[in-house]
Specification:
With 155 residues, the chain is α+β, with helices and mostly antiparallel strands. The protein has four helices and seven strands, in the order E-H-H-E-E-E-H-E-H-E-E. The chain has a single domain, classed as Aminopeptidase, CATH 3.40.630.30. Bound molecules: coenzyme A.
Length: 155
């Protein structure tokens, strides 16, 4: 028998996605998780760009960017892929879609923070063209260091 993988579509998140987003947060992060309240707020504010990846009716990944200060720096606030859906390009697709949304609104730079110890995410961001801008000692809940990365969206 041949089983084909269901196709995955990216679309803007809506409030009904909240349980799916919370589940991905819980599966993806041990600390510094976005709370229900914070996520609900992000789904409402006009300067947020929240995209989800949907497969067979289920949300399997999401990316969130804050496009607050028009025309300057877009902040990639969160990116997470459900463990079963990792390694098939979804993280990269979502990141590229957030960058496109930022570019369309006139942003020229994307910035984000990542834990020094987060090898997969650092590899993804490196492959996507992000460079290290600053080290952030004790940036995370448990005291772990972060890195601030940046990418020029002009090219
Ligand atoms: C980081 C994360 C979003 C990557 O998502 P993904 O869908 O698995 O990533 P992709 O399949 O799009 O990979 C894109 C590139 O990232 C790099 N990469 C991704 N996962 C990797 C891994 N486990 N090891 C090494 N490189 C990896 C590779 O360069 C990869 O390109 P390639 O497949 O051509 O080699 C995912 O692992 C995740 O959700 N992790 C937990 C949450 C998290 O840490 N989010 C980031 C917070 S800053």
């Amino acid at each position: 028998m041949v089983t084909s993988r269901p196709s995955i579509t990216l679309r803007p998140a809506h409030p009904a996605d909240l349980p799916g987003l919370l589940a991905i947060e819980a599966e993806s992060f041990t600390g510094d998780r976005l709370s229900r309240r914070a996520l609900r707020r992000w789904l409402r504010v006009p300067h947020a760009c929240c995209l989800v990846a949907e497969s067979a009716g289920a949300v399997v990944a999401y990316g969130l960017a804050s496009l607050h200060r028009a025309g300057r720096v877009a902040r990639v606030y969160s990116l997470a892929v459900s463990p079963g859906a990792r390694g098939s390009g979804l993280g990269g697709r979502l990141l590229a879609a957030l960058e496109s949304a930022a570019r369309e609104r006139g942003y020229t730079v994307a910035r984000l923070e990542v834990a020094v110890t987060n090898g997969p995410a650092r590899a993804l961001y490196r492959a996507a063209g992000y460079g290290e801008r600053e080290r952030l000692p004790g940036y995370y809940e448990g005291g772990g260091d972060g890195l601030r990365l940046e990418k020029c969206l002009d090219s």
